[in-house]
Design a protein that fits this description.
Length: 296
């Protein structure tokens, strides 16, 4: 059902995640204008009758600004007083930054925008492209509670599990914790499968057994069959997994927290990248285990 609203949204970043997210906002009745640095992307959007602009200034005069970009430097480039969008935003605008970036950068951006009376939320997501398409993302939000409440209707158009995580930067912290568990769940699944295989066990039977007990996880349910079938298709790429683990490692270093499990799984994924598997799905860690255990 379409929302009855006159609010306008400027959306920055129409990649594999951003595109389905902005389409869900449009289908919910919001007026959405899109900017992407890739003109090929915006040309395709125009053919689909989605309004686009070719510079950040042209997108600044909206009630909400949402960004969904690959990494911290991309976001810092957009929210920059000298060369980015900051100087063009009007007081009272709400910025929802939905990329996965460092929590310290989110705090820095938010504090800078607040000097100009611009409200800011860091709101990274989990659920992958499938969740983005189905508007079924988990969204972890940091910032002022009042700003969160003002943004909730918009967030509900893109996700089903909307969590207010607390102060500015806490959305990114929650996302890092999520990614540590995602990666280590995949690692433990690949490790268990490697042991079972070495003993001549039935991996499909093992997977069904584990799903029914205390070892079950989202990763086992959704990626287990892909691992068993040696399917390396990318829902969430190893390169992106490594980016998120790097952010978690940097945050741990900032606070002096020792996270040995994170260090181990990051090292294993780096081995995958060394074998030029960065574009593969993150379940493809099974290939590293195949090499380590000399199994096919």
């Amino acid at each position: 059902m379409k929302a009855k609203t006159h609010l306008s949204i400027g959306f920055i970043g129409a990649g594999s995640m951003g595109l389905p997210m902005l389409k869900n906002l449009i289908s919910s009745g919001y007026s959405v204008t899109v900017y992407d640095i890739n003109t090929g992307v915006t040309n395709r959007l125009e053919k689909d009758k989605i309004r686009t602009v070719n510079n950040l200034r042209a997108i600044a005069n909206n009630d909400f600004i949402i960004s969904m970009l690959p990494d911290t430097p991309d976001v810092l480039g957009v929210f920059n007083r000298e060369t980015g969008i900051n100087q063009f935003l009007k007081p009272g605008t709400i910025v929802i930054e939905m990329s996965t970036i460092s929590s310290s950068s989110s705090i820095e951006i938010g504090k800078e925008l607040q000097k100009s009376q611009i409200e800011f939320l860091d709101a990274p997501v989990s659920g992958g492209v499938k969740g983005a398409i189905e508007a079924n993302l988990s969204i972890m939000v940091g910032g002022k509670k009042d700003t969160f409440n003002k943004s909730l209707n918009i967030l509900n158009c893109m996700g089903k599990n909307i969590i207010y995580a607390g102060k500015l930067g806490m959305g990114q912290t929650f996302k890092m914790c999520n990614q540590i568990m995602v990666a280590t769940h995949i690692q433990s699944m690949c490790e268990a499968f490697a042991l079972c295989k070495s003993k001549g066990g039935d991996l499909k039977l093992l997977k069904d057994t584990l799903v029914g007990g205390a070892a079950n996880s989202w990763m086992l349910e959704n990626l287990g069959d892909l691992v068993i079938d040696k399917n390396d298709k990318a829902g969430f790429r190893i390169d992106l997994q490594l980016k998120d683990l790097r952010l978690a490692s940097e945050a741990a270093f900032e606070t002096g927290v020792s996270l040995p499990g994170l260090a181990l799984v990051q090292s294993l994924y780096l081995q995958s990248r060394a074998y030029k598997e960065g574009k593969n799905g993150n379940q493809s860690l099974f290939k590293t285990y195949d090499r380590m255990t000399n199994q096919k």
